Amino acid sequence: MTARDGGPDASPLVDAARIDEDLARALVAAQFPQWGDLPVRRVRDGGNDHRIFRLGDALSVRLPSAPGYVPQVRKEQEWLPRLAPELPLPIPAVEGVGEPSELFPAPWSVYRWMPGRPASVTEVADWARFASDLAAFLVRLRAVDATDAPAPGQHSAFRGGPLEHWDDEMSVILHRVHGRERDLASGIWRDALAAPSTGQPVWFHGDVSLNNLLVEDGELRAVIDFGCSGAGDPACDTVFRWTSTQPAAREQYRTDYDVDEGTWARGRGWALWKGLIMITNKPPGQAAFARHVLDRLFAEA
Question: Closest Cα to residue 125, out of 254, 221, 223, 251?
Fold first, then answer.
């Protein structure tokens, strides 16, 4: 069994509480002494699955924050350099492959620092163009040769795989909405399950959120965080249609992402699952975001 299947790299004792600037600095000094004198500072909005530290001006250090995220590391190290030449926008570039050690029991990476700010915290000049550029990127990603690419599994949070994987959980979280909304949610889920993927596996990103889309001068300039990527059903990448708060972006994405109605039906299932998972979250803004997603889905239904 390999890391791709949830094997040896899948469950070392990674403890997020230990991941701080001192650890990142020590790891760099031990394995990449050429960068050992560079300043290290935490990127506060670096995401949940990994902790990110700025290393000097041109680099960053990325460490998995829990055992379940460890399989993503080797996947990105192997595949990002192979995907990058095929894509119309920059993606993270691996500059150093960190190995497990006594300091940190999992693989980790040094990346080239990518300029820009997440679309969630900066201004976008034209949301329709933004959505069109994003769709073009994902359509091109789907066209990249997926031979030997990682199949959906733990590394992708099972995104890209059959929605049936989450059917038992959905039967529980459906009770987070009530009355007519529960009836609508049940119908969306039934329709999603009734539209199984019949195509060949293609590359998907797996986490098309505004936090993973970098903007400069109001335009989409880069796509980051391929931790949930793999080769399978691209329906999970349709969710931008419901997670975006911008009507122009939603409509343009619906036009340009260019998949069949069955894929959109499965995408509604993914968006519903995401919304119901997050509707009870406590961090600021997450429940409101989930409410927006569910409102869009129910309005369409």
Answer: 221
Question: Would you give the DSSP letter of residue 150?
Answer: P
The answer to whether the pTM exceeds 0.70 is: yes
Q: What are the distances in angstroms from CA 203 to CA 193, 242, 298?
A: 21, 21, 29
The predicted pLDDT at position 15 comes to 86
Rounded to the nearest 10°, the torsion over CA 18, 24, 29, 33 is 150
pLDDT-derived band at 297, boundaries 50, 70, 90: very high
**Kind of pairing between the strands at 59-64 and 94-98:** unpaired
Q: Helix or strand or coil: residue 167?
A: helix
- Report the SS3 class of residue 108: strand
Q: pLDDT (tens digit, 9 = 90+) per residue, 219-246? A: 999 999 999 999 999 999 999 999 999 9
3-state secondary structure of 206: coil
Residue type, 279: I
- 97 and 77 Cβ atoms separated by less than 8 Å: yes
How many Å apart are CA 72 and CA 59, to the nearest integer?
19
Taking each helix axis from N to C end, the angle separating 179-193 and 261-278, rounded to the nearest 10 degrees, works out to 140
- Identify whether the C-beta of residue 71 lies closer than 8 Å to the C-beta of residue 3: yes
Q: Which token pair is 222?
A: 């880069």
Q: What is the pLDDT of residue 2?
A: 36
